[in-house]
Every structure is written in structure tokens, then in C-alpha cells.
Amino acid sequence: MAFETHLVTKERWLDLVELFDRPIVRTCFCMFYRKTGTGTGVGLENRQATKALVDRGTVPGLIGYENGVPVAWVSLGPREDYAKLRRSPVMKPVDDRPVWSIVCFFVDRGARGSGLSERMLRAAVDYARSCGARLLEAYPVDKDERSHPG
Hints:
Elements: E1 3-7, H1 13-20, H2 43-55, E2 61-66, E3 69-78, H3 83-87, E4 100-107, H4 116-130, E5 136-138
Parallel strand pairs: 4-5
Antiparallel strand pairs: 1-2, 2-3, 3-4
């Protein structure tokens, strides 16, 4: 299968919406870490907030495509863009060096098991590097039992 990744831009917005409208994806539209507090919004509010970022020229992440169909997503950017990370006592910076953060990762159920996670991670690293990032962090959660994809 032909695989490619693209930055989420105005031209790719509807592809992100289509991917996020699938039943398995939560409705946070990857705004959870960009906001603080318990009222981080859901659904339409977050969709509009992410759209506003894209309309201003902020790239919130990359979409992965198989044969032209959006099947994967990774959200990343400079750590300082994520209010929840800036305020977190648990995920606070370990030093004062600039770092980028990966805050969300998703592969559609039908595309899992084919190595797309690794391809998306490589694309994320390449994109961050092209933007001048020297450090990239993520926040994986390792559980004994199978977890909900959200």
C-alpha cells in the first residue's frame, strides 16, 4: 500500500475532521494538552479551537494516508504550546532546553498491525527536526491490560 504523511494545514483540514469523526476517536480534537483545568471542552468547541489554530498557520500535527485515505494521526509541537504541560507538576521539564512534545498518537483500527505507528513516529521526528527541534518527548502509558484507544 502507498503510505504518505502530510502536515495538517487548511488544505488538509477536512481529512483531519474525517479521521476524527470515526467512532473510535475521542472528541478532544487534540486540545486536551493545549488547555488547562478540568473544563477542557469537547466536540464542537475543541473542533473550532483546533480549526482556529490551523487557520492561523499553526500545524497541530501530521496525518498519515494509505492509498490517499487518512488512517493515522500524530499531534506534536513545541512544548511551550501546551498549557497543560507547562502547568503540570508531574510532567514538568527536566531542564531548560527547548523541547518538542508528542501529545497524541492514533492509528485507525483497520490500519493497525502494518507498521504505521513506526512510520508516523519517523515522520514526526523528521518534521520536528525540520523545524529546528533537537529534543522530542512523549508520554506513553504502559498498562498490563488492553486499554481504550482514547
